[in-house]
Amino acid sequence: MEALIDSLLLASKAVLPVLALWLLLRCVRSMLQERYEPELWAYLDFADGHRAQVRHWESILGSAKSCDIVLPRGSVERAHAALVRSDRGHWRIYDLGTDGGTANGAVRDSGDGLALHDGDTLFFSDVSAVFHPLDQTALLECSAQRATPGQYISQSLTLLLLTVFQALLALQFSRSAGEYAAAVAGAFGALMLAQWSLYLLMRAMDRLGFELETLAFFLCTLGTAVTATAAPAEIGKQTLLTLGGVGMFLLLGWWLRSLGRTKSLRWFAAAAALGLLALCVVAGTSVNGASNWIRVGGVMFQPSELVKVAYIYAGASTLDRLYRKRNLFLFIGFSAVCVGALALMGDFGTALIFFVTFLIVSFMRSGSFATVFLAVAGAALAGLLVLTVKPYIAQRFAAWGHIWADPYGAGWQQTRALSAAASGGLLGVGAGRGWLHSIFAADTDMVFCLISEELGLLVALCAMLALAAICFFAVRSAANGRSSYYVIAACAASAMMLVQLALNVFGSTDILPFTGVTFPFVSRGGSSLISCWMLLAFLKSADTRQNASFSVKLSARRRAKAPVAVDDSEGIEEGGEEEVDAE
């Protein structure tokens, strides 16, 4: 029996990277299959007989070719007006500060927008058009005409691959976890139960797109392995935090289903973010040089991780606010306070993540490279000041690229991390059988090398590619987003996770300065794990593929028609019609 188990353990080392790569390829293939059905919400009939289709809840009208609806040239400006639909079906037109103005009949927009109804005549400077929204019946008929059966790669088979991956890890830990073997096995069992329960819930809601969740559970599986190796006594706590993160993902995803409801709490989110940062500045507990921890009783948490979610929630914008300079200046000021507070706390890595996210959002909100250039110049000066005030940060920069010159001093952690990763080779030494976990912060700041040592470089690279695939898909799907709010939020969340990934992996391998940030979903820690699942909700809300996201409401007609699975032996699932309204 012992010989059989040893043979299985040896074989599992080679099977794990195959399963990881197979799972990753199936998810990517499913996400890249074109499943976007063009939506139609209204028409604009121009005086010259041309009819323009309104395909988004928020559309820019102007003479620029990049506009959603291109108006005839003349006195029309490049970005002239914004046509906006609420999630209750109400339409408004907003002038974007033009000289020629935007009017509904004889009433000109003064900045607050004008309500629209069927048959209204709109004037964009010297260009006129008649507005015709589609009512509920027309939307249903249009959806029925456009709906075509679409194919997803079977998510049940992909999830089964992940389950086998988890079972093999649990088997490896059964021989290396000692007295914690049962607790570790229970943790992997809880993950399996959670992912299948969530999958069945999505299927009950007629949702077929489960790729983002599958990849997130794959990363959390690696995070469970990291905890089982480095802190097996904390495995139960980490599992509960993972389940809590999934719960927050569902809660925030449900909340984002209503754009009006989402917009109503933006100011509250901004105030909460500033309040949490102020609490850290005043009463934060210093850990590893950064006072970004708060102790409540016997529990420690990082408010800055929750601020990431609040920052994106408050920073994303709808088109009716996007072109108002006052709102852009408020966002710049809000960002400066957030980054400045993080710098005062000594959390340079998180401050850098916030700053890059700010650049992404500010460019999407302004479209101006000049704004981004000024922000970069200001940040460079602030960075020099921080390096002067915080000596330990300057020491990290001084050690960058020279860790082997002082392997027992400034390069202690990274030299050990690189040595451990090299000893693992392609397949690793086996789960729980490495030695890097005994080095300080190996389970948070250096998890890439920890995974490389125990599970092999191939699995560690799959972890990187899984997170990159999540973010790439979010950016790709954002082009079809109904509202700029979801587009900006998804792109900002993607940028935040990608920058965090780069700083963690490249910092631990001395390609970039070592900033001490976590690997999303994988590093041990509750605050980071919960914030990552909440950021995933922003990415999910931008997914408008047919029947893909629970964050996008289905019509009553669509809810009454369940999807049909066909030819599951070849891994294909078929979906029904696209949703036609939000209510």
Notable traits:
16 strands; 583 residues; alpha+beta; Tumour Suppressor Smad4; 6-stranded antiparallel β-sheet; 5-stranded mixed β-sheet; 2 domains
Describe the structure.
The chain is an alpha+beta fold. It folds into two domains: 2-34 and 150-541, no CATH class; 42-146, Tumour Suppressor Smad4 (Sandwich). Helix content is 56%, strand content 11%. It is built from 20 helices and 16 strands. The strands form four sheets. It has a six-stranded antiparallel beta sheet with strand order 2-1-11-10-7-8, with no helix packed on it. Strands 4-3-5-6-9 form a five-stranded mixed beta sheet, with no helix packed on it. Strand 1 (42-46) and strand 2 form a beta hairpin. Residues 143-150 and 555-583 have low confidence and may be disordered.
Helicity level: 55-70%
Beta fraction: 5-15%
Mean of pLDDT: 80
Structural class, by secondary structure, is alpha+beta
